[in-house]
Design goal:
By secondary structure, this protein is of the alpha/beta class. 34% of the residues lie in helices and 23% in strands. Bound molecules: flavin-adenine dinucleotide.
């Protein structure tokens, strides 16, 4: 089998970005993906001409992924959702006040609640999250917000920005930075879905000289004398390599690496707190005109958004909505979650079922394999210090970033570390 200097395991956003950076830096690179197509969780399915991402996806305009994609020449086109937010409070749908007049006339909050919400919004704009001590966001909320309903509003915004339902674990500093990012820079819903990014990254990788092999599952990473040596594949083939970047989840990465249980990977796996979600993604011929387009439930961790209001997600004007229930690590009950999501849809858009042209239910998908939390080092990887030549990337290998931003930033860090090693080796050699 042909040999390469570097192998990247996994063809999601992290793997594609890392492979492009390596190949552009002059390193011969192979990208190995176990599925039949690249994209990982950034794939979009095309159901009868309707583009459905794997759950609601929004790209942060001031995040690391956006910046790296732009730098790589990837066109990122889409629409910015408007700031009109409705909330569900005890099954009543009300507008979330976002302007002084909206606040004045709001039926959601008491007068003291209105004052607190205004104060909270002002605090969020001025705050410097990096200067905060290492505390969970729950502690920050309890010190800053008294009104129970304003707390619920804050937690709903926090969930939407971080995809995390564990305020007792989520680190305050990174969470508040992410909320500021969502309030200041906003997000984009992408025309054609996230597949458009994947397709362009795949093309850029091929142009840079990356050899992409799909349907290729890595079964073991062999090491010798503390150095990466050889990859073993599920189909029995082998490949010698000098550098490896794994973008597989933490538990799989530890399992793949020979002796992984004696490395820092064991600790990273055990400390990981995945953010999970049940998703109901729908293509509909129409949506009731008087129904809401963006809803945050204040009593249950539920989100609804009409993405096609801002992004083109079909050729014929089909409406695409995403409903999602955020789950903690062990909270999944697929049947019950599907029932809750359908019931929510009945409340928001009665009669929706007769208009369905495309439907996708994801019972419990990993949104992120980890997030910045108490008890986890702020900066994870890219090196695995016990094994020379072995690196990690992915949304669980962030340095304070969240979600796709963590995938993109960690991919770049891993590739840069390898390029630095290669330059040093060239100088010394
Ligand atoms: C419902 C949902 C909503 C989301 N919303 C947002 C959002 O709004 N904003 C945002 O920024 N992010 C969001 N994300 C997160 C974002 O999609 C992910 O962080 C990102 O796509 C992960 O990319 P990755 O490359 O790190 O991992 P993955 O996409 O999981 O890629 C890893 C790849 O490795 C492959 N692989 C694994 N093991 C092996 C092996 N042994 N051999 C070969 N290949 C292997 C897998 O098949 C996979 O393709 C969301 C995710 C979900 C699920």
């Amino acid at each position: 089998m042909k040999t390469y200097d570097a192998a990247v395991i996994g063809g999601g956003l992290a793997g594609l970005i890392a492979a492009i950076d390596l190949a552009k830096g002059g390193v011969s690179t192979v990208l190995l993906e176990k599925s039949s197509r690249v994209g990982g969780r950034a794939m979009t399915s095309n159901k009868n001409g309707v583009f459905l991402n794997l759950g609601a996806h929004a790209l942060y305009r001031t995040g690391k992924a956006f910046a790296i994609l732009q730098e790589l020449g990837v066109r990122v086109e889409g629409g910015r959702p408007a700031s009109q937010v409705s909330v569900l409070a005890q099954n009543r749908l009300l507008p979330l006040p976002t302007s002084p007049w909206g606040l004045f006339s709001s039926r959601l909050l008491s007068w003291s609640g209105k004052r607190q919400l205004m104060k909270m919004m002002m605090t969020l704009t001025k705050l410097e999250p990096d200067s905060l001590p290492i505390i969970p966001i729950k502690e920050w909320v309890e010190g800053e917000i008294d009104d129970p309903l304003v707390r619920k509003v804050f937690y709903a915004l926090c969930r939407t920005a971080t995809y995390t339902v564990e305020p007792e674990h989520l680190l305050a500093g990174p969470a508040l930075s992410q909320i500021q990012r969502s309030l200041k820079g906003g997000v984009l819903y992408l025309h054609g879905g996230w597949q458009t990014i994947v397709d362009q990254l795949r093309e850029k990788a091929a142009e840079a000289g990356v050899h992409i092999i799909s349907n290729k599952r890595v079964a073991e990473i062999q090491q010798e004398n503390g150095r990466v040596k050889r990859l073993h594949f599920a189909d029995g083939e082998q490949m010698d390599v000098t550098y490896v970047i794994s973008t597989a989840p933490p538990a799989e990465t530890e399992r793949l690496l020979q002796g992984g249980e004696h490395t820092v990977l064991k600790r990273w796996k055990e400390a990981a707190r995945p953010s999970m979600a049940a998703c109901l993604d729908l293509g509909l011929t129409k949506l009731s005109a008087q129904g809401p387009h963006f809803v945050l439930d204040l009593d249950r961790p539920i989100y609804f958004s009409n993405h096609s209001l801002h992004a083109q997600l079909s050729a014929n004007g089909t409406v695409v909505t995403h409903l999602l229930k955020y789950n903690g690590p062990h909270e999944s009950d697929p049947k019950e979650d599907e029932r809750i999501l359908e019931e929510t849809m009945n409340l928001l858009h009665p009669g929706w079922e007769k208009d369905v042209v495309a439907r996708q239910f994801l019972p419990n998908i990993a949104v992120s394999h980890d997030f910045p939390h108490i008890g986890r080092e702020m900066a994870r990887g890219p090196e695995v210090p016990e094994v020379q030549g072995f690196y990690v990337a992915g949304d669980w290998a962030g340095h304070g970033e969240f979600l796709a931003d963590a995938s993109a930033a960690s991919a770049r860090r891993a590739a840069q570390s390898i390029l630095k090693k290669c330059r040093q080796a060239a100088v010394i050699g």
